[in-house]
């Protein structure tokens, strides 16, 4: 079949040349679109097309805005607008008309309108809000096609905020009799789940129903949702593993209708989806994996190799087998499969085979050996993608022996590649393995040179950084280090002697730094020569000012000897009035140091020996400055995340004292940033003068208290990166120049740190241990306050801080760095504040998911109990009482202090010949009291009475006033417990045990008691304004349409009054068709209710800070309203 | 942006020979390494799908095949001009195959049936001007087709531990 089509299509062009004229004329005669298209095909230049389209758009604009245009014409115009947009011309004037068309037109117009909306608007376009009502209307339509269209549009694009408005309607469609509607509804819900997972958390059980749908198509659609949900949280759906396996088993064995077959393969896409789900579920889970083995084996067997789609299944199967808990038998079969893929002559299969091999290689390196010849062949394959995949595979199996070959291949590829994306990716990989496995210095330096020149300026920033770090820290072998550095110097000198214009900036920076630090190692090299080479760089026009800074820094280190100094002077002349402040500062430094050899010798000792460099991590030399500033009324420094939090709080009512507020803080720092040159000289002179400082500090007690709070527990975390940053400053002075804003910014947090957070020894130890952590390269997302991820790139070499500093290069420019870097840091500080932003959001996204699952599990666990737990005890007790009429009825009355309060009927919990236990609960103002009435009917006394309760959702505590230990014969006693809600539930089920001793025999009796949530609900009296401020703060919400009580004049008020009466809600206000009410669970657990009359139903929206509370309360609202 | 993606995609795809694989890594243009271009080449036409890693490569290739076969059925021997002059219809057909970015239907007959209902609707609108009331009611009463799937349907037996209502 497919071949036939392909042939027809290949034959088409020849037919077209004959046909096109007639077809085109036929079509064009009927429509304006035809005319437009024909017009376009006759054009000869882009310019002409532009003119034509602009003309067309102008006439379209006239047409759509004319009131006389009929819907039919409008529809036609819309198609032309779509066509123009497709060609890349904006037709934004028609957007609103597209929405109007969808709103007002007949069903066919609607279809065009919806299509235009889908094609024109982006997902968050503001005009989409206008579509909501139309969608609502169409969802309620009796015409199935309209419903279908509405669902399609909803799944394509819908404003996130409006999901609650249509959610109930879409949900309803899950029960529709037509499978196509159910299927589309499921996909729409999938979209909602992706957009806003917590909006649909209450309908997870409906997803399950969709999964069990009698139509396999609906089930297939629901798998999209499950794949997503399981990806988000594999643990939550382990119980479904068996179900998915069963489904797959049935599909594989051909139990589905023939209809689902595709090229005689039963429902291949369904199988693929299931295999993907299973692989996630079985990952690192032996138990779940074991359930799958059989069906996977079956799938492998069934998928006989004859068609493309069976390969697709096989590929998923193989991936699944290698993802889940390993099974040797399956691995063997899967390996064979991969083999077939790799050696296949079909290029697509080869590609997938390589992909599979790459995936598998870490677990089973032998497999690569089996196919090494094929892999080698693939390296020379004409298809660039195959080559790329092969290199990826090689990258995974690189070791010290094969690294040179693999890198050679990769570089070969890089030379040909023109795609930036691939280049950046591959360059990173080359750098990584070269660094890891480099066999010799020469090779390493040459490889890195190629990396830098090929990677250009798009290269990831950490490649040059880690390269320089490696050079400076070196290996354990000092001799080797020297050789490596010498080689680098030689190589760069010769590079600079050649053509330098084409070299990327990053590479030039690296060269400058290396020459600055290490060119003195080459004793036969005249520093003046290096200076000349470097100064030549400054003359290149393309060179960036950042690179110039690096070059100047290198010159600063080098300027010794007459010739160099004069060279330096002339360079200084050029740059000391540069408009770039950083550059200017460097020029001044260079000038000062070149004139004063003594100072330079002190700052940049040539032979520093092996003494460890003392770095003042707490930057105590700045303390004087800080305390002075504080005494002068400056706000204490706050780490960026705290500032950010405060900024967020600022929108709410701020009760913080004025001095802590942000603006002052910022301004004080910007001032100090500008003034820094003068301040620096003062502060560095005072460096280490912390005793005097702390005395000053104690005099300004008030201010420092504020400081202390800022640098309390919270500040401590963020303080750990500065430690490492400073360590870096120490080793690589040029790196602290402005090209590293984040690092620099972090150091600032130290600069402002007052002396009372001294550098604890522990932190050093921590740093040491963190440096020992493995060789991983991933730059993972940095969570706020966690120092590890940011510090990662410092860990590449497993070394203690001590050994690394002892292996430091001989010349370390320490002193200038803090001065200048602090200066730079200050100016970069705001950068860091912004870089923190995404991380914060990242953190806040996480919780909803976990909640969702908790909800799911909870309802699953708790649901069976109410039905069998309650009724039975009740029944037996009644029988018991009926059977024993001779016993006097125990007197039960409430204790006097509880008499006035609302309480339930006293019900019997359990009774026997000798004992009767009954209970009721009393609704107190802020808690619920459970009263247990115990009647001793026997002739002996009860002693050692003890009640125990087991309930997960409630907290039970004995009200101390009425402890109960014994009950004399034929008497009664009351015991009071106070209950508070631990986790909301619809009903709370308590199982209690009463143990006592009677006639020296110990006995036990079990009973259970059930309370509805409504017993715990109390009115919350707030004003509309308060309601308004709280509404958006509460994150847990639920929405549903409820029946409206329609007896009286005003259904809304009536309904609210019923809720008020029966559930104890406080009705805050009723305005027109909307009403708001509030209640609370305990003192601080409010729940807000918003309802609105909408087409004869009551759209209720509940919000609360407590998870599950809205759902549970909604249930009770529904019950109450149904009862009346 | 969209234009740029289309242009560069075409640039990439049109350069490729027939003897190379049907997948392409789009790179930064389409959002990174998680995304892929999967295409099929029919005469002068390229059908390109951009998918993320949650789709099976070969599965999508066959989905394109299904899509093209459906086009062929719906337009009766489809040619480029059909697609150009009726790009709205192409969109409607595509909407039945892929909805909101997810595969909705892979069964060609089912897709064709859905599209045919819509076509019938269109024809009935041809007479709308003549007898509006009649036509409208005809549209209202029209039902979506459902291909009989009753064969064997009882056999698929899915056991899912269901959640009780609450």
Automatic annotation (TrEMBL), chain A:
Q: What keywords are assigned to this protein?
A: Golgi apparatus, Membrane, Protein transport, Transport
Q: Which GO terms describe its biological process?
A: intracellular protein transport; vesicle-mediated transport
Pinpoint the AP-4 complex subunit epsilon-1 C-terminal domain residues: 1018-1122
The Polar residues compositionally biased stretches are: 747-763
> Where does this protein reside within or beyond the cell?
Endomembrane system
Give start-end positions of Low complexity composition bias: 676-694
Bilayer topology: Peripheral membrane protein
Give the GO cellular component terms, alphabetically: AP-4 adaptor complex; endomembrane system
TM spans, by residue?
none
- Per its UniProt entry, which superkingdom is the organism in? Eukaryota
Query: Disordered: where is this region?
Result: 671-697, 730-763, 791-815
Which is a Pfam family this sequence falls into?
Adaptin_N
SMART domains named in the record: AP4E_app_platf
* Function, in words: Subunit of novel type of clathrin- or non-clathrin-associated protein coat involved in targeting proteins from the trans-Golgi network (TGN) to the endosomal-lysosomal system.
Q: Which family does it belong to?
A: Belongs to the adaptor complexes large subunit family.
* Subunit-structure text: Adaptor protein complex 4 (AP-4) is a heterotetramer composed of two large adaptins, a medium adaptin and a small adaptin.
In Swiss-Prot or TrEMBL terms, this protein is called AP-4 complex subunit epsilon
Automatic annotation (TrEMBL), chain B:
| BP GO terms, sorted | Golgi to vacuole transport; intracellular protein transport
InterPro entries for the chain = AP_complex_ssu (IPR016635), AP_mu_sigma_su (IPR022775), APS3 (IPR027155), Clathrin_sm-chain_CS (IPR000804)
Q: Where in the cell is it found?
A: Cytoplasmic vesicle membrane; Golgi apparatus
Keywords, A to Z, come to: Cytoplasmic vesicle, Golgi apparatus, Membrane, Protein transport, Transport
Top-level taxon of the source organism: Eukaryota
Chief localization = membrane
In what residue span(s) does the AP complex mu/sigma subunit domain sit?
Answer: 2-121
Does this entry carry the keyword Membrane?
yes
Q: State a GO cellular component annotated for this protein.
A: cytoplasmic vesicle membrane
- Role description: Part of the AP-3 complex, an adaptor-related complex which is not clathrin-associated. The complex is associated with the Golgi region as well as more peripheral structures. It facilitates the budding of vesicles from the Golgi membrane and may be directly involved in trafficking to lysosomes. In concert with the BLOC-1 complex, AP-3 is required to target cargos into vesicles assembled at cell bodies for delivery into neurites and nerve terminals.
PANTHER family recorded: ADAPTOR COMPLEXES SMALL SUBUNIT FAMILY
Similarity section: Belongs to the adaptor complexes small subunit family.
- Name of the protein described by the UniProt record: AP complex mu/sigma subunit domain-containing protein
């Amino acid at each position: 079949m497919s071949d036939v089509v392909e042939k027809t299509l290949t034959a088409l062009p020849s037919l077209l040349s004959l046909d096109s004229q007639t077809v085109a004329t036929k079509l064009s005669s009927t429509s304006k679109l035809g005319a437009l298209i024909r017009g376009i095909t006759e054009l000869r230049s882009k310019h002409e097309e532009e003119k034509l389209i602009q003309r067309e758009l102008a006439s379209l604009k006239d047409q759509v805005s004319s009131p006389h245009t009929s819907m039919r014409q409008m529809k036609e115009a819309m198609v032309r607008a779509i066509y123009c947009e497709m060609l890349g011309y904006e037709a934004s004037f028609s957007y609103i008309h597209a929405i109007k068309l969808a709103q007002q037109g007949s069903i066919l117009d609607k279809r065009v309108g919806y299509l235009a909306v889908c094609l024109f608007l982006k997902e968050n376009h503001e005009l989409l809000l206008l579509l909501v009502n139309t969608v609502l209307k169409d969802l309620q339509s009796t015409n199935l096609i309209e419903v279908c269209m509405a669902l399609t549009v909803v799944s394509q694009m819908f404003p996130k905020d409006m999901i609650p408005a249509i959610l109930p309607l879409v949900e309803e469609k899950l029960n529709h009799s037509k499978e196509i509607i159910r299927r589309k509804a499921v996909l729409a819900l999938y979209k909602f789940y992706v957009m806003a997972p917590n909006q649909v958390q209450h309908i997870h059980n409906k997803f399950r129903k969709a999964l069990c749908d009698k139509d396999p198509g609906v089930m297939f659609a629901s798998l999209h949702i499950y794949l997503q949900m399981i990806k988000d949280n594999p643990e939550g759906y382990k119980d479904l593993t068996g179900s998915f396996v069963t489904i797959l088993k049935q599909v594989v064995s051909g139990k589905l209708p023939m209809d689902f077959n595709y090229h005689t393969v039963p429902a291949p896409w369904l199988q693929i989806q299931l295999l993907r789900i299973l692989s996630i579920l079985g990952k690192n889970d032996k138990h779940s994996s074991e359930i799958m083995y059989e069906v996977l084996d079956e799938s492998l067997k069934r998928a006989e190799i004859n068609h493309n789609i069976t390969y697709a299944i096989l590929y998923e199967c193989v991936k699944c087998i290698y993802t889940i808990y390993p099974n040797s038998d399956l691995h063997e079969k899967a390996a064979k499969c991969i083999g077939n893929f790799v050696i296949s002559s079909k290029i697509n299969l080869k590609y997938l085979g390589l992909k599979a091999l790459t995936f598998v290689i870490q677990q089973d390196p032998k497999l690569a050996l089996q196919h090494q010849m094929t892999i080698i062949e693939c390296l020379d394959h004409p298809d660039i993608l195959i080559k790329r995949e092969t290199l990826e595979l090689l990258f995974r199996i690189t070791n010290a022996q094969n690294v040179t070959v693999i890198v050679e291949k990769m570089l070969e590829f890089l030379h040909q590649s023109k795609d930036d994306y691939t280049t950046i990716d591959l360059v990173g990989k080359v750098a990584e393995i070269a660094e890891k496995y480099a066999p010799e210095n020469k090779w390493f330096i040459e490889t890195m040179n190629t990396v830098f020149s090929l990677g250009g300026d798009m290269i990831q920033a950490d490649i040059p950084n880690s390269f320089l770090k490696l050079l400076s820290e070196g290996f354990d072998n000092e001799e080797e280090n020297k050789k490596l550095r010498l080689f680098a110097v030689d190589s760069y000198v010769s590079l600079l002697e050649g053509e330098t214009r084409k070299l990327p900036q990053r590479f030039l920076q690296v060269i400058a730094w290396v020459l600055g630090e290490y060119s003195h190692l080459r004793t036969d090299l005249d520093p003046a020569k290096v200076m000349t080479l470097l100064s030549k760089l400054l003359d290149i026009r393309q060179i960036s000012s950042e690179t110039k800074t690096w070059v100047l820094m290198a010159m600063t280190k080098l300027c010794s000897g007459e010739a160099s100094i004069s060279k330096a002077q002339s360079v200084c002349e050029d740059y000391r009035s540069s408009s770039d402040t950083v550059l200017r500062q460097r020029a001044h430094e260079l000038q000062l140091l070149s004139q004063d050899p003594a100072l330079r010798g002190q700052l940049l000792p040539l032979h520093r020996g092996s003494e460890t460099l003392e770095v003042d991590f707490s930057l105590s030399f700045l303390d004087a400055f800080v305390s002075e500033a504080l005494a002068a009324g400056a706000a204490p420094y706050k780490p960026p995340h705290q500032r950010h939090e405060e900024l967020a709080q600022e929108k709410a009512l701020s009760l913080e004292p004025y001095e802590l507020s942000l603006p002052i803080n910022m301004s004080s720092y910007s001032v100090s940033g500008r003034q820094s040159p003068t301040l620096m000289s003062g502060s560095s002179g005072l460096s280490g003068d912390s005793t005097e400082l702390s005395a000053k500090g104690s005099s300004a007690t008030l201010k420092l208290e504020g400081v202390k709070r800022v640098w309390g527990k919270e500040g401590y975390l963020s303080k750990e990166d500065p430690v490492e940053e400073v360590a870096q400053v120490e080793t690589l002075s040029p790196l602290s120049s402005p090209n590293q804003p984040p690092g620099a910014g972090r150091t600032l947090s130290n600069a402002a740190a007052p002396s009372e957070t001294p550098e604890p020894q522990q932190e050093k130890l921590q740093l040491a241990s963190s440096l020992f952590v493995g060789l991983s390269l991933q730059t993972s997302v940095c969570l706020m306050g966690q120092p590890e991820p940011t510090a990662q790139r410092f860990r590449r070499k497993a070394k203690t801080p001590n050994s690394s500093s002892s292996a430091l290069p001989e010349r370390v420019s320490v002193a200038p760095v803090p001065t200048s870097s602090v200066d730079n840091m200050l100016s970069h500080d705001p950068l860091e504040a912004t870089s923190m932003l995404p991380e914060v959001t990242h953190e806040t996204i996480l919780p909803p998911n976990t909640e969702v699952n908790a909800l799911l599990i909870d309802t699953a666990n708790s649901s069976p109990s109410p039905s069998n737990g309650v009724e039975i005890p009740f029944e037996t007790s009644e029988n018991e009482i009926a059977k024993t009429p001779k016993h006097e009825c125990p007197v039960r009355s409430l204790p006097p202090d509880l008499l006035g309060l609302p309480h339930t009927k006293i019900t019997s919990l359990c009774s026997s010949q000798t004992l009767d236990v009954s209970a009721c609960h009393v609704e107190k103002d802020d808690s619920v009291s459970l009263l247990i009435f115990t009647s001793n009917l026997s002739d002996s006394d009860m002693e050692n009475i003890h009640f125990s309760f087991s309930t997960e959702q409630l907290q039970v505590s004995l009200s101390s006033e009425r402890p109960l230990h014994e009950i004399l014969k034929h008497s009664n006693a009351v015991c009071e417990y106070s209950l508070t809600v631990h986790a909301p539930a619809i009903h709370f089920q308590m199982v209690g045990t009463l143990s006592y001793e009677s006639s020296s025999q110990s006995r036990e009796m079990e009973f259970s008691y059930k309370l509805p949530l409504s017993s715990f609900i109390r009115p919350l009296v707030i004003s509309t304004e308060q309601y308004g401020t709280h509404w958006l703060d509460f994150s847990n919400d639920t929405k549903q349409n409820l029946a409206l009580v329609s007896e009286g004049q005003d259904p809304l008020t009536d309904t609210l009054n019923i809720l008020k009466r029966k559930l104890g809600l406080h009705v805050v206000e009723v305005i027109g068709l909307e009403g708001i009410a509030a209640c609370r669970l305990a003192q601080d657990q409010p729940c807000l209710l918003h309802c609105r009359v909408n087409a004869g139903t009551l759209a209720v929206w509940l919000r609360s800070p407590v998870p599950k509370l809205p759902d549970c309360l909604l249930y009770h609202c529904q019950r109450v309203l149904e009862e009346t | 942006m969209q234009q740029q993606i289309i242009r560069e995609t075409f640039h990439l795809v049109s350069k490729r020979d027939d003897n190379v694989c049907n997948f392409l890594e789009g790179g930064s243009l389409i959002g990174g390494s998680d995304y892929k271009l999967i295409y099929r080449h029919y005469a002068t036409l390229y059908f390109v799908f951009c998918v993320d890693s949650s789709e099976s490569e070969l599965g999508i290739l066959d989905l394109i095949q299904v899509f093209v076969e459906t086009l062929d059925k719906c337009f009766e021997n489809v040619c480029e001009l059909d697609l150009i002059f009726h790009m709205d219809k192409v969109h409607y057909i595509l909407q039945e195959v892929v909805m909101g970015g997810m595969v909705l239907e892979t069964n060609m007959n089912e897709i064709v049936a859905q599209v045919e209902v819509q076509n019938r609707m269109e024809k009935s609108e041809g007479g709308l001007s003549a007898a509006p009331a009649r036509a409208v009611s005809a549209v209202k009463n029209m039902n979506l087709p459902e291909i009989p799937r009753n064969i064997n349907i009882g056999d698929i037996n899915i056991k899912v531990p269901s959640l009780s209502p609450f």
